[in-house]
């Protein structure tokens, strides 16, 4: 039930939050842009659990971090509302439905993916994936690029990655440096977006409003920071030891533990920015799967709720499957183990980043020296996402060395459906899958 706009909502019981985060994990389709929009609509506009300015401040911090920003935002809000257990609960429930679905879809793909009917469906879905990435760039840009200076930051980030091959961490650091400089010289251009204090963007008073004091558990404490970091390190080491015991210290599972830990720490800009790094490592270096399989895995990831970077579960499943002892039960067990290892090491750092760094972020809500770099980084993410669309477009539209005009036409139609008619991602993927079957039949 939506509270009255002039009355601050009552405190939210943990049980009510549990069912909300589980629901979000089951319906959050459309990648990080769609998931963030869902959280904003539900938590800021309808339920008013948190004000828009505090929501955006948390979002900008999550965009600064390596890893999936939508997942980190869920952890942050859950932690702010219900302490450490709330953050862990929000993050886990946001991930669980997509993990279980992707393990099932990965098994079906690895066991039956070479069937012509499955290949035809995937042929239609791949252009839809490119369109979804382009639409995400558009939607993030509309929210983030509020002036010419921020648009220039986004353009520079795109050029740095697509044309010059600059590593993602350097792009993020460069954007942060521009934000520091811009915050000093042109503070009005790099101020945090969203509602002005006291207006709540017309949504009414929020449970955690602009003027709500920082709760006791969200205040910085050096001993608590050390405890969270130590606990995260222990969980990471314990997970790696289990992987090494299951497959050997030089085995695939142990290698995945190390690789996905690096992916979690070394890639910035959210889920879309992580994917090129995953491609370089999983396809080119370790050769756990092929380039077409990587694109197919992303297509499967787009059909499931939850974070897009959950495609790591497919990568882990496929890599462990292809290095396991033949036999369907053994392959399925190995694949599931690979998916769990990839998921554990990819998302564990996100929990640590939020639970350890959240108190520091809460102390900088009104500090332009902190918000200006975060605003610039948010703008750079738009360029990163566009570079990813270019990367996938080359894979899909030039797969055979010649332009695939049917795939290009399908992607163009998908862009129109997404941006002009606001078609949902699941409906779009279903329609493109059907078109893929028709086109394959026509050409076959």
UniProtKB/TrEMBL annotation:
Its main location: membrane. InterPro entries: Chr_Tranpt_l_chain, Chromate_transpt. It is found in: Cell membrane. This is Chromate transporter. GO terms for cellular component: plasma membrane. Belongs to the chromate ion transporter (CHR) (TC 2.A.51) family. The chain crosses the membrane at residues 58-81, 87-110, 117-138, 150-181, 225-246, 258-279, 299-321, 333-361, 373-393, 405-421, 428-443. Pfam families: Chromate_transp. It is a multi-pass membrane protein. The keyword Glycoprotein does not apply. One of its GO terms (molecular function) is chromate transmembrane transporter activity. Keywords: Cell membrane, Membrane, Transmembrane, Transmembrane helix. The lineage of its organism: Bacteria, Pseudomonadati, Pseudomonadota, Betaproteobacteria, Burkholderiales. It comes from the Bacteria.
């Amino acid at each position: 039930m939506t509270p009255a706009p002039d009355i601050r909502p009552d405190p939210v019981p943990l049980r009510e939050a549990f069912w909300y985060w589980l629901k979000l994990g089951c319906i959050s389709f459309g990648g990080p842009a769609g998931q963030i929009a869902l959280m904003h609509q539900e938590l800021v506009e309808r339920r008013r659990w948190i004000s828009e300015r505090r929501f955006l401040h948390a979002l900008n911090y999550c965009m600064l971090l390596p890893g999936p920003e939508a997942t980190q935002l869920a952890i942050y809000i859950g932690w702010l509302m219900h302490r450490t257990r709330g953050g862990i609960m929000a993050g886990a429930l946001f991930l669980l439905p997509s993990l279980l679905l992707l393990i099932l879809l990965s098994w079906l793909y690895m066991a039956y993916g070479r069937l012509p009917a499955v290949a035809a469906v995937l042929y239609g879905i791949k252009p839809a994936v490119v369109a979804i990435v382009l639409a995400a760039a558009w939607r993030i840009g509309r929210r983030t690029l509020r002036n010419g200076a921020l648009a220039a930051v986004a353009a520079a980030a795109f050029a740095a990655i697509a044309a010059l091959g600059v590593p993602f961490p350097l792009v993020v650091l460069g954007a942060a440096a521009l934000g520091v400089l811009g915050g000093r010289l042109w503070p009005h251009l790099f101020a945090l977006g969203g509602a002005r204090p006291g207006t709540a963007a017309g949504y009414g008073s929020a449970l955690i409003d602009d003027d709500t004091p920082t709760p006791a558990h969200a205040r910085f404490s050096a001993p608590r920071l050390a405890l969270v970091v130590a606990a995260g390190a222990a969980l990471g080491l314990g997970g790696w030891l289990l992987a090494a015991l299951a497959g050997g210290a030089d085995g695939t599972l142990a290698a995945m533990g190390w690789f996905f830990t690096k992916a979690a720490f070394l890639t910035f800009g959210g889920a879309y920015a992580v994917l090129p790094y995953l491609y370089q490592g999983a396809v080119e270096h370790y050769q756990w799967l092929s380039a077409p399989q990587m694109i197919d895995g992303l297509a499967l990831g787009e059909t499931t709720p939850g974070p897009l970077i959950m495609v790591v579960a497919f990568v882990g499943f496929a890599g462990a499957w292809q290095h396991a002892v033949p036999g369907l039960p053994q392959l399925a067990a190995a694949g599931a183990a690979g998916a769990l290892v990839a998921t554990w090491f990819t998302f564990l750092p996100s929990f640590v980043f939020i639970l350890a760094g959240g108190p520091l972020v809460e102390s900088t809500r009104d500090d332009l020296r902190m918000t200006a770099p975060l605003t610039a980084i948010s703008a750079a993410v738009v360029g990163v996402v566009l570079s990813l669309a270019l990367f996938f477009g080359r894979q899909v539209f030039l797969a055979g060395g010649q332009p695939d005009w049917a795939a290009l036409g399908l992607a163009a139609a998908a862009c129109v459906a997404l941006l002009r008619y606001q078609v949902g991602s699941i409906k779009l993927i279903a329609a493109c899958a059907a078109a893929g079957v028709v086109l394959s039949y026509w050409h076959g």
